[in-house]
Write a structure and sequence with these properties.
Number of strands of chain A: 0
CATH superfamily of the largest domain in chain A: NADH-ubiquinone/plastoquinone oxidoreductase chain 6, subunit NuoJ
Structural class of chain B: mainly alpha
Oligomer: heterodimer
Distance between the termini of chain B: 59 Å
Keywords (chain B): Cell membrane, Membrane, NAD, Quinone, Translocase, Transmembrane, Transmembrane helix, Transport
Radius of gyration of chain A: 22 Å
Shape of chain B: elongated
Largest sheet of chain B: none
Distance between the termini of chain A: 70 Å
Number of domains of chain B: 1
Family (chain B): Belongs to the complex I subunit 4L family.
Order of helices and strands of chain B: HHH
Subunit structure (chain B): NDH-1 is composed of 14 different subunits. Subunits NuoA, H, J, K, L, M, N constitute the membrane sector of the complex.
Subcellular location (chain B): Cell membrane; Membrane
Shape of chain A: extended
Largest sheet of chain A: none
GO cellular component, one term (chain B): NADH dehydrogenase complex
């Protein structure tokens, strides 16, 4: 077994094991920690596929950004020692049944299909190529989605402020109490 | 080096991860955990996009850019969701979806 195979097995085992533990752990802060491990192992898979830029984005944005705000909100809304109630068996059976059925169907479909690998010379993916694609308006360019994403981020910024802002009327009633 | 692992393995890992996310979405009743399940699903999709891009279309970058945009949207979605969750907690003092059933407080 070559080193590449061992690395792939390690990364995918970590991803699957810890995503299962994220979902099933009853201590929410532990769930967040397991999620962090899943995201870092996913970055490892991206590195394995030789998409170094995506791996860096994954670590910086997911592991550095999203997990931090999730932990932040957990600490704002829960006690550290909080344990959620045991899950009702009906919901566990429904969830695992739906997921198992869907996974079995999808994996069956994947195994049926015969993929034809492309043997072309792989494109080197570095920051220069990515930047040129992102602002290219011609064929194979991504200028339009790039602009759409920037508008979306602006909308999210405004939306987050509006949602998190304290309501004036609400504030007065709480003061009167 | 690349073809020591067939593409199927990546797709199966992605599938299992996605459906673990689906199971979490159904089983859990805590808004933050539901959000984490959604992040798992998005990640599984990203793995699929990148693996297909690398194996089947190595001379293009479509999957790579899709993943880039999905990551950006996931970050936006997470920040909005956290803002909503904290607001819900402020009003109801809980983020259990079974107890947050009033739309207008």
């Amino acid at each position: 077994m070559s080193l590449h195979e061992i690395l792939f097995i390690v990364f995918s085992t970590v991803v699957l094991l810890f995503s299962l533990m994220t979902v099933l752990s009853r201590r929410i802060l532990r769930s967040a920690t397991y999620l962090l491990l899943v995201l870092v192992a996913t970055a490892g898979i991206y590195l394995w596929l030789q998409y170094e830029f995506m791996a860096a984005v994954q670590v910086a944005l997911y592991a550095g950004g999203i997990v931090v705000i999730i932990v932040f909100s957990i600490l704002l809304t829960h006690h550290i020692h909080h344990r959620s109630k045991p899950f009702p068996p009906v919901r566990v059976i429904t969830g695992l049944g739906v997921a198992g059925l869907g996974a079995a169907l999808t994996i069956w479909a994947i195994l049926q299909h015969d993929f034809h690998y492309h043997e072309a010379e792989p494109l080197e993916v570095n920051a220069k190529v990515i930047g040129q694609h992102l602002v290219n308006t011609g064929d194979g360019g991504y200028a339009l989605p790039f602009e759409v994403i920037s508008v979306l981020l602006l909308a999210v910024l405004v939306g987050a402020i509006v949602v998190a802002k304290k309501d004036k009327a609400n504030e007065q009633t709480s003061e009167n109490k | 080096m690349l073809h020591t692992i067939p593409l199927h393995y990546f797709l199966i890992v992605g599938t299992l991860m996605f459906f673990i996310g689906v199971a979490g979405f159904i089983i859990r009743r805590n808004l933050i955990t539901i959000l984490m399940s959604v992040e798992l699903m998005l990640n599984a999709v990203n793995i699929n996009f990148l693996a297909v891009n690398r194996y089947l279309y190595p001379h293009h970058l479509e999957g790579h850019f899709f993943t880039l945009f999905i990551v950006a949207i996931a970050a936006a979605e997470a920040s909005i969701a956290i803002a909503l969750i904290i607001n819900i907690y402020r009003r109801f003092s809980t983020i259990d979806v079974d107890q947050v059933s009033d739309m207008k407080y």
